[in-house]
Amino acid sequence: MSDEGSEQPKDPKPPETITQDLQFSQVSARVPDKISPGVHASGVLLLNGPNEFILDFLQQLVQPPKVATRVVMTPPTLGSFIRALDENMGMYEKKFGAPAALPAPPPGAKPTPIDDLYSQLKLPDEMLSGTYSNAVMITHSPSDFVFDFLATFYPRSAVSARVFMSAQQVPPFLNTMKRAFQQFLDKQAAEAGKGPPPSTN
Q1: Cβ distance 83 to 155 under 8 Å?
Q2: Other C-beta atoms within 10 Å of 3: how many?
């Protein structure tokens, strides 16, 4: 039998990489056993680089003071966290009133340089890289706030860090984040406005 004059079928188009948007509930985030007890923090150091913010939650009642947990967030995630905490603080105040203010620092007290702070802090090697978070769930009682920092990856969100803070520590923490984030946005805007260097021709 001759196949003269017949056309051979062409090779089918090779399969392409398939992508799709994933949707899953953050409300049902899994809480690993080692994360479930959480850590209590009495302060926060907020650092930022060009692509991330680092939140070092501190335990300052122990000597030497130590970093209880380190959380790493992208700028958009920190912006979302600020908006959510601002809203949550408003709900808290409507229900319980404004929390008592923390004692003011002594007159004439100067901020400690960041290098000096970290020279005094105990930061374990296993905590240097921090834990990544791209979402946060916030709950509160009359006395405390709980932050569940989430890693929202398919197929299910998981809590990567859980932090407890007293209600009176939350307003200064929120204000610190607002200032740091605004400074970050201002710096970005200034750098974007610089444009290319002028021509030397």
Answers
A1: no
A2: 7
Q: How many whole angstroms separate alpha carbon 140 and alpha carbon 30?
A: 19
Model confidence, pTM: 0.79
Are 46 and 55 in contact by the 8 Å Cβ rule? The answer is yes
Which residues are within 8 A (CB) of 104 and not within 5 positions of it... i.e. 6 or more apart? none
CA dist., res. 147 & res. 140, Å (int): 9
Neighbour count for residue 27 (Cβ, 10 Å): 7
Q: Do residues 164 and 39 lie in contact, with contact meaning Cβ atoms separated by under 8 Å?
A: yes
In single-letter form, the type of residue at position 58 comes to L
Contact (Cβ atoms closer than 8 angstroms) between residue 165 and residue 173: yes
Residues 92-113 pLDDT 10s: 999 999 999 888 878 877 777 8
Q: At residue 95, what are phi and psi to the nearest 5 degrees? A: -90, -40
Which stretch of 78-92, 119-133, 135-149, 168-182 has the lowest confidence by average pLDDT?
Answer: 119-133
Highest CATH level, class, for 39-99+120-186:
mainly beta
Convert the pLDDT of each residue in 161-192 to its tens digit: 999 999 999 999 999 999 999 999 999 898 88
Q: For residues 128 and 149, give the distance between their C-alpha atoms in angstroms, rounded to a whole number.
A: 17
* Phi and psi based region of residue 166 (left: phi greater than 0; alpha: psi -120 to 50; beta: remaining): beta
CA distance 98 to 89: 9
